[in-house]
Amino acid sequence: MPPVDGAGCSPHNPTDHPATPVSPRKVLPLLQRANLQVAPLLADFIETRALPGTGIDAEAFWRGVGAIFDAFAPRNRALLATRDRLQAQLDAWHRDHAGQAIDQAEYQGLLREIGYLVAEPADVAIDPENIDAEIATIAGPQLVVPMLNARFLLNAANARWGSLYDALYGSDAIPGAAEGPGFDAARGAQVVAWGRAFLDEAVPLARGSWTDWDGSTPALADPAQRVGRRGDSLLLRHNGLHIEIVIDRDHPIGATDAAGVADIVLEAALTTICDLEDSVAAVDAEDKVAGYANWLGLIDGDLTASFAKNGRTVDRRLAPDRDYVDASGNAFSLPGRALLLVRNVGHLMTTPAVRLADGGEAPEGILDAIVTGLIGLRDLNGLGRFTNSRAGSIYIVKPKMHGPDECAFSNDLFNAVEDLLGLARHSIKIGVMDEERRTSANLAACIAAVRHRIFFVNTGFLDRTGDEIHTSMEAGPMLRKGDMKLAPWISAYEDRNVQIALAAGFSGRAQIGKGMWAAPDRMAEMLATKIGHPQAGANTAWVPSPTAATLHATHYHRLDVFARQAERAAEPVASLDDLLTIPVARGVNWSDDEIRAELNNNTQSLLGYVVRWIQQGIGCSTVPDIADVGLMEDRATLRISSQHIANWLHHGIITPDDVDGAMLRMAARVDAQNAGDDKYRPMAGRGMGSTAFAAARALIFDGAAQPNGYTEPLLHAYRLKAKAQD
Ligand SMILES: CC(=O)SCCNC(=O)CCNC(=O)[C@H](O)C(C)(C)COP(=O)(O)OP(=O)(O)OC[C@H]1O[C@@H](n2cnc3c(N)ncnc32)[C@H](O)[C@@H]1OP(=O)(O)O
Ligand SMILES: O=CC(=O)O
Ligand SMILES: [Mg+2]
């Protein structure tokens, strides 16, 4: 694809919101569309791929787009200015109270006075219409996938159904690992035993165990759980989730099984978030259009990916629906793919893909709403090979909103996009990530602002931790990252999210979601602990991979989340005082070793993530930590590590020399960890000659000044530089 982009990004300046950012890069001529200047690649994508078939005329479309930017770009800028004002007021207050214990009454008085805390509305009741069952009435895993990776995207869409046998055999869910070059029969036997025990729990037989089943028609303890057949295979359902017991005596596994069971296939990722935000590196029109084109391919149903794997070529496409017959012989089908949701970016960044009438870059979140909404319209108009939303909705996940005014802004923006596209009011639904402190503290008001279109609230634990650190940057040095997980604000945050959502009527209407399992290789630990999410009353929770989706699905068979929600609905809402208790480490004397360990750990994960982002445009990857354990790192985990180091630097727990020393040591370590990657360029020894190293350093040394501690402005600027160098 030819590189067609407007200009460099305009990193958000904390003290100023220029309408016309200065571009450091040479640009290809943009095309005039209504009162906008549009990158040719984007104009072409819209006019030749996204609009055709919708009945919307290109000229009218661009006129409408121009009008939306006219109306919403100034509002967007004003909201960002409010963020900065609040942050400055908080910083000043903490500086005035340096070293003092925080008096919650006085502190909350300040928060109300400056407009950080608003009056909570009573009796908020959500009433979204046309919500798909995968969201409203069935509880199950939610997979997240970077939008810029077609191979993963297709896999994620198809992860609605997952092989339990493969997930167990290929992960550490069963201790040890497969041995030998071929099939490890001993491990296989453990997998089969695990599977049978699972069936005994989820779909028990009237008598005896599935272990002893001989393949004859099974008598279930609850006969209603048997809902169909496909050939010899059995389709069962429990807690709304399907289980297919695959019978195939010709299959190598089925041939050795007394009942001919070749696999147990679980309904797994009910929903998949296709992510345009923190798991991708999209800095210019070229990147944005690549993401939009993948979303279009998913919705139109023609996305494909061809790649070599294990010595053969794999052609991947979307899975068709699955056909069954019921007990009366009537045919029916079940969706073959997850219900697809799209995560837009937040309100912060601008994009060089579109320039406004005044020459300034357009707010990227507004462009995302328009383009992903337009592509969603194609689904509602039946233009795709498959149907995504059977209920007729477009699901946009909106991250990083700070408080009710920003939610109201998104609501109004979605109204405007619906009008532009001729969509019925509230066809575009919103998933609100509760991942900024001002949203957690005003959650009922945030929900109220979008109550007619909300389809989820989700605790985005990682960003939320980054915002916790940044908001109170001046209050003192923060707890160590590991200790932060035990701080009172976190449990109050998780509890309040569920309790406030239940009080607003989410149960049976919308999702209450929990955060990401960020250790993709640690499935045994996930199986042991992530059941805590449904136990907390969450009817969905994030997983990083199809394997994790399949294994996490078993948790939703172990308890009935909707019954759990009914129990939790009676609880009082957890304390706002706890939520607002700042995790500063008062009276803690860390040893030199503890400080060094914390710094090494943070610089290592920061460098490991940033180097791939800057050099290769990889927005999410498994980054080996200092102990070589692979952890999912995305922009939210980077926000935590960069803010944590910046905070300790700011309060003198570490010095600039300490940071530089750790950075140099860890650069060598990260280089060694990436030695097998031929696209990788080492950082060690090149100092500032390495753009990635310079970016990582800026994220720390300029970290305290970044808007709300976000990493996007610096990442975009350095990635654009790296692209230009390439
Ligand atoms: C704080 C937040 O915002 S969290 C949300 C953002 N995070 C995410 O979106 C994480 C999504 N997950 C991922 O991107 C990946 O799982 C990673 C980067 C963590 C790990 O990727 P890798 O190291 O390449 O994974 P690994 O080598 O273990 O497995 C690769 C296989 O799993 C599949 N896979 C892994 N993750 C996913 C996924 N999220 N969706 C679909 N398929 C996936 C790949 O398609 C591949 O299979 P294939 O060879 O048949 O295509
Ligand atoms: O977006 C998710 C998060 O944890 O942040
Ligand atoms: Mg986040």
Automatic annotation (TrEMBL):
Chain positions recorded as glyoxylate binding sites: R343, E435, G460, F461, L462, D463
Occurrences of domain Malate synthase TIM barrel (ranges): 340-581
Keyword check for Transferase: yes
EC number: 2.3.3.9
Cellular compartments annotated: Cytoplasm
The reaction(s) this protein catalyses: glyoxylate + acetyl-CoA + H2O = (S)-malate + CoA + H(+)
Protein name according to UniProt: Malate synthase G
Protein species of origin: Flavisphingopyxis soli
